[in-house]
Structure formats: C-alpha cells, structure tokens
Design a protein that fits this description.
Strand content: under 5%
Number of helices: 3
Number of strands: 0
Distance between the termini: 54 Å
Structural class: mainly alpha
Order of helices and strands: HHH
Mean pLDDT: 86
Helix content: 55-70%
Radius of gyration: 18 Å
Largest sheet: none
Amino acid sequence: MGKKNKQSLLKRNSLRTHRHIFTLNDEENRALNRYIKKYNVRNKSKFIRETLMIAIIKKMEEDNPTLFD
C-alpha cells in the first residue's frame, strides 16, 4: 500500500516544475524580510507564491467580462 501512495504522489499534476526567478532592490528586500519576521512566516517561497497567485486571480476576476455591465 505504501508503494501505491508513493506512485500516486509522483503522478499528481500539481508538481512544481517551472522555475521563475526575480530580483528585489534593497528596499523591497528589507520590506519583505521585515514582513516575514513580523508575521512569523515559516515558508518564504510558499508565502511569495500564494501572495502572487492571489493577486493574479483577483485581477483576472476583476477583468472578467460580465453579462450586465
């Protein structure tokens, strides 16, 4: 049974295989580090990924055409 669970985890579609790298200036980096320390963020990459995706999804919902506009 352990072997089956391991195989299903490897075949899932949500594996992160695409890497994106970005740079911050000194002020942005200080702000990010200050936020992470203040709010006790344990996983920096997860925080950045979730924050970015929330902003993207919100913007896409705002730009979505509506029927009664």
